[in-house]
Amino acid sequence: MSGPTDPAEAHFDKGSWGWDLSQWRKLPLVFGYTDRWVEQQSDLNADAGTNSLQTVAVPSGYVYRVDCIVTMNVDKVVTQLKRVVGGGVEVEIAVDLAAGAATHISLFPVGLWLKVGDYVKVYFLDCNAGDDLYLEVWGIKMAIAE
To answer: Does residue 110 contact residue 67 with C-beta atoms inside 8 Å?
Structure first.
């Protein structure tokens, strides 16, 4: 593998090469904390029946880790389905049967990694028209080099 030999070369200023005591090698992706991820979505006038709330999809250049998901229907006891969505596939991570009205239902810790385009989605089943629904997510986001 060839690599830069002069520390003044452009690769060094981006931190993409490192010395392994025998030669310069391309470093793996740098992976670390950038900022916390806090998001709240709500529907303060839900339709009767099944409703859903979802986070904004992870943007290009980031990965997110979900550490806590909190959901609530302020007005009625309903079943809640918590899922993560990636590549068009929904994966169920929790089902809260008969989640109490005005009760925060928490899923913690989660520890799921989301990449570009992935998001968290929650279904609220058997809602009444006008119910107030909430989805809150807490985690971390990391900028990555693409």
So the answer is: yes
Q: What is the CATH number of domain 31-143?
A: 2.60.120.1330
Convert the pLDDT of each residue in 46-87 to its tens digit: 999 999 999 999 999 999 999 999 999 999 999 999 999 999
Give the tokens for residue 102: 């005005």
Q: From the CB of residue 100, how many other CB atoms can be counted at a distance below 10 Å?
A: 13
* Per-residue confidence band for 124, with pLDDT thresholds at 50, 70 and 90: very high
Phi, psi of 13 (to 5 degrees): -70, -20
The residue extents of the domains of the chain are 1-29, 31-143
Tell me the C-alpha distance between 92 and 113, whole Å: 14
Tokens of 136: 């809150």
